[in-house]
Amino acid sequence: MGNSANTVRRERVVRMSVEQPLWRALMGYRVLTMLYAIGLFASAYEVYERPWVAIGYFVVLVVWTLATLPQVSGARRCTKRFLTADLTVAVVGILLSPVAGHDRAVTGGSTLPSIWTAGAVLAWALKGGWRWAASASVLIGVANVIQRGAFSRSTIHNVLLVCIASIAIGYVVEVARASERTLARALEIEAATRERERLARDIHDSVLQVLAMVQRRGSALGGEAAELGRLAGEQEIALRTLVAGGLTPTSRVSEDAAQGAVVRALDDPAAPEDPADTGEPRDLRPLLAGHAGARVTFSEPGTPVLLAPAAARELAAAVSAALDNVRRHAGEDAHAWILVEDEPDAVVVTVRDDGPGIPEGRLAQAEGEGRLGVAQSIRGRLRDIGGTAELISVPGQGTEVELTVPKQPAPKLLAPKTLVPKKLVPKKK
User: Fold this and answer.
1) pLDDT exceeds 60 at position 11
2) Is residue 145 within 8 Å of 98, Cβ to Cβ?
3) How many domains does the chain have?
4) pTM to 2 decimals?
5) Alpha carbon distance 282, 272 (integer Å)
6) Are residues 230 and 294 in the same domain?
C-alpha cells in the first residue's frame, strides 16, 4: 500500500513537470523556423550570387532538424555532444551567408539559418540553465560579428535579444527544477507520514496490546513468567518509541531532473543502498533510535540531523560505548537519557544516567590500569572525526557525557584531550 501511494505521487510529480512542455515547444519551434528560413531563401533566390551554397546548407539543415527531433524531446537525450554539433550547424550557417553572395546578409538582413539559430541557443538553456545559455549566445554573437565584418546596431540588437531571452528561459528552468524537487520531497514526506500513521494504528491495535498483556500476566504469575513479562514491557516501550519517532529513511531527490527522474525513490534499483557509499550526509537519528528502551529515553529533533557518513558512524559508536559503561558500572536498573541537539555548526549528543557517578580520580586510575573504554571508545573516536568529548560526574548523582561533532570536517586532527570528571551539578532529569 505504501509503495503504491509513493508510486502514484512520483508519477504525479513527473506529470507536473514544467520543463517537459518547454522541450516539446522547442521541437515545434525548430521545425517552424527551419521552414521560415527556407521561405526567406526562396523569396530572394534570384539575388543570391551562389545559390548552390545556400541550397547545400538548407539540405543539411532540413536533414539535421528532422533527424534530431528525438534529441530535443527531453533532457535525457539532449547530450552535450548533440548540443555542440547543433550549435556548430547554426554558426556554420551564419558564416556561410556572405559566401552565398546575399548582400543583405552583410548589410543587415537575415542570415541563412535566420531565427533557427535561437532554437540552438534555447536547447542549451533548457539543458544547462542560464550559464549554458549565456555561453551559447556569446558564440552566436561572435559569429554574427565575424560574418558582417563590424559591429552594427542591428547586430547588437539581435544578439542581445537572443542572449537575454535564452538566459531568462534558462533561469526559469533552474527555478522550476528546484521547485519540482521541493514539491517531490514534500509529497514523499506526506506519503511516508500517512503510511507511518497507518502502521502505528495497526501496531497499536495488535502488537502493542499483546506485549502489554504479556507484561501484566507475567508480572502477576511471577517466576520465569515475570522475566518474560519484563522483556515484553521493554520491547513495548522500544516499539512505541520507534513508531512515535517515525525514523523512516528519506529518499533523495535526484539532482538531474533533466534525465526524466524528478525523484530517486527508495525502491529505485539504481539508487545506492548505503549513503556512506556516495559520501552523502547521513541522518544520525536512525543510528541512535535503536538504543531506546525501557531504561533508555531517546530525545531527538523533528528534522534530520545530517553528518558525514564516517562522522555519524563514529558518533553512534561512541554513544553505544557510553551506554555500555552505564550498564556495566551503573547497574542494570540505571536509567539513561540520550539527547540529540542539532546546532548551526555542530551536533551535540548528551548521554546521562542516574547511577552512582564516578569517584574523583577513578577515570585516571582506570587508564593507568589499561582500561581504556572511555579513552579510546569515546574520546578516541571523537578525536578522529574532529570532535570533543566531555565527561561530567558527581558521585552519587550520575554521569553525563557530552559529545560534540562539528558539521564541517576539521582541517587537522585535534590534540588528544583527557576526560577528567568535573564536579558540576548535572542537568535536572
Assistant:
1) no
2) no
3) 2
4) 0.45
5) 13
6) no
Same domain, 24 and 157: yes
Per-residue pLDDT tens for 173-212?
Answer: 888 888 888 888 888 888 877 777 677 666 655 677 777 7
pLDDT in tens, 202-234: 665 567 777 778 888 888 888 878 888 888 877
Look at residue 294 in the predicted model and tell me its pLDDT: 79
Which of 105-114, 240-249, 342-351, 407-416 ranks highest by mean pLDDT? 342-351
pLDDT band at 361 (very low <50, low <70, confident <90, very high): low
- pLDDT tens-digit map of 62-76: 999 999 999 888 888
pLDDT on residue 86: 92
Same domain, 87 and 152: yes
> What is the distance between the alpha carbons of residues 372 and 378, in angstroms, rounded to a whole number?
9
Q: What is the dihedral of CA 200, 339, 234, 204, to 10 degrees?
A: -10
Domain range for 292 = 275-429
Contact predicate 86/132, CB 8 Å: no
Amino acid identity, residue 182?
Answer: T
What does the alpha-carbon distance between residue 223 and residue 281 come to, in Å, rounded to a whole number? 48
- Say whether both 332 and 285 belong to one domain: yes
Helix axes 116-128, 130-148, angle to 10 degrees: 150
Q: Of 397, 377, 381, nearest to 330 (Cα)?
A: 397
- Both 255 and 294 in one domain: the answer is no
Higher-confidence residue: 421 or 238? 238
CATH number of the domain enclosing 327? 3.30.565.10
Q: Which residue has the cell 527551419?
A: 34
- Based on the fold, state whether residues 121 and 197 are members of the same structural domain: yes
Interatomic CA distance for residues 188 and 2, integer angstroms:
11
